Amino acid sequence: MSNPTGRKVTANINLTLDGRYNGPGGPGDLGAIVPYAVTDVARNHLTRIYENATTVVLGRGNAQGFLGFWPSVAEDDNADPRDRGYAKWLVDTEKVVLSTTLTEAPWSRARVVNAPTADVLADLKATGEGDILINTSASVIKAALAADLVDRLYLIICPEIAGGGERLFDDGLPASKWTLTHREIGESGEMALTYDRVR
Question: For the domain that residue 84 is a member of, what is the CATH number?
Fold first, then answer.
């Protein structure tokens, strides 16, 4: 597929050692993830994920959850500068929210789109500039991986086995090859990894 704008689709998510983005208690069970989200490694990682991105793509749940957290961080002079930088970027950047149920955007500079992920990403890649970041919205990342549209994966690997919960990499994904372009290991064993798709 031709990409006249050169825009890349990137995806960011935190996973346990057993490849899960939540625990056996369901979407809100983040006990194996949250402790590693505030480490220096995770905060450094946060600054990398948005440095070239001009559009963020979110599922409905994350869009609503982020709205309840990140705008206040953007205004908090006492917040870690890395968190505040990301928060300001998120508030100010274009947001595309994929949803079949929302009728209006949950916050400013956002628009709701009810269309397949692959179609939305293809449309975004055809216009504009800068990377397109799918940020922690697992259903959107899964659909993009299934369509082989992800050019870069940003992962935080948390040194815990959840023993249940939803996995990011389901059976049936197209085979693909990736190259490691960045890694950082934290004091607690968490790893920030960046993989680029080999095409």
Answer: 3.40.430.10
